[in-house]
Amino acid sequence: SKPRVIFSGIQPTGIPHLGNYLGALSNWVKLQNTASPSDELLFSIVGWHALTLPQDPQKLREARMDILAVLTMYNPNHTELAWIFNCITPMGKLRRMTTWKSRLATSRNMGEEDAVDVDDGGLNLGLFAYPVLQAADILAYRATHVPVGDDQTQHLELCRVIADQFNRNFKGMEKLFPLPIQLNTPSKRILSLRDPTSKMSKSAPDTSSRILLTDPPSTIANKIRSAVTDSIPGITYDPVNRPGTANLLTILAACNYDNEDVQETAGRYVGKNHGALKKDLTEAVVELLKRPREKFEKLRTETGYLEQIAQAGAEKARSRSEATMVEVRKRVGL
Ligand code: ADP
Ligand code: NA
């Protein structure tokens, strides 16, 4: 089969959480172990994305080291390519991005449905154009496969639209960009423990809404105990009417049952209640995060080593993407 270029990234906006782990990081490790020797794997810390929300520089530096303890790279070619993409991306497409709409809804205190075409409520241009930068992250390496969580499906669709638009506008001997496909993670999108209608996210202000890779067992237990569910007796998988309960089942299916059909996981709880589910879930998450947490704590103290890895990664990333950029500049006439 054709060699794959596999690219994915994570923002340095805080310690990775269970959603990042199930939706991305654990899958990246699996890919690393199963990829064929001709595949190229690139995993990036995408710092420019973090700047689309207000960040304290010192905290951002710390958070970068947090993520570096997990993986690494820095490459200015991303921003140059993003600018070129900005110039071929219709604003209407960006306005339809769920991430933008939900930020807008939050800032305007209204539902996502209504938050189309309203005044942009103090949000910045970087946040609006964020999915374009993400497309540049991916296409700078002409990546063919992108292992990301379900929350990124829409962004990846936009990435293909941009790649295709560039290919049409700037024809050469061959199409410059592949249309990258999503490498699905087996687990579903993990939701916030406090507000199970939104995704578990590093940037949510309420830290009890997410389980961190570094949380000790007692913290994991507390967060799961106080996870918002519902007052319906018994356990059923009903994501529409019981999103909190459904989320706990999704996480349990991912941790303990190899991502079995969540209905089946629910079937294990016939005649049981939330208490039983939360107890089992706590044990499962504690067990799942035990080794990643130990590894993280150890690596996190080795800042010199982490910087070294970051430099090597940046080096590789820059030279790898330069070939793309030379061709991009030529085709657009710069
Ligand atoms: P966050 O939104 O928490 O800041 P990132 O944007 O840095 O996370 O995403 C890093 C990776 O983690 C992406 O592949 C993304 O799809 C995945 N991811 C983030 N949040 C979740 C979630 N709640 N459920 C599943 N995967 C997630
Ligand atoms: Na995100």
UniProtKB/TrEMBL annotation:
Keywords for this protein: Aminoacyl-tRNA synthetase, ATP-binding, Ligase, Nucleotide-binding, Protein biosynthesis
Gene Ontology biological process terms in this record: mitochondrial tryptophanyl-tRNA aminoacylation
Subcellular location per the Swiss-Prot or TrEMBL entry: Mitochondrion
Entry GO terms, CC: mitochondrial matrix
GO terms assigned for molecular function: ATP binding; tryptophan-tRNA ligase activity
Gene3D superfamilies to which the protein is assigned, alphabetical: HUPs (3.40.50.620), Tyrosyl-Transfer RNA Synthetase (1.10.240.10)
Catalytic class of the enzyme: ligase
EC number(s) stated in the UniProt entry for this protein: 6.1.1.2
SUPFAM superfamilies listed in its UniProt record: Nucleotidylyl transferase
Similarity field: Belongs to the class-I aminoacyl-tRNA synthetase family.
Protein name: tryptophan--tRNA ligase
Natural source organism: Lentinula edodes
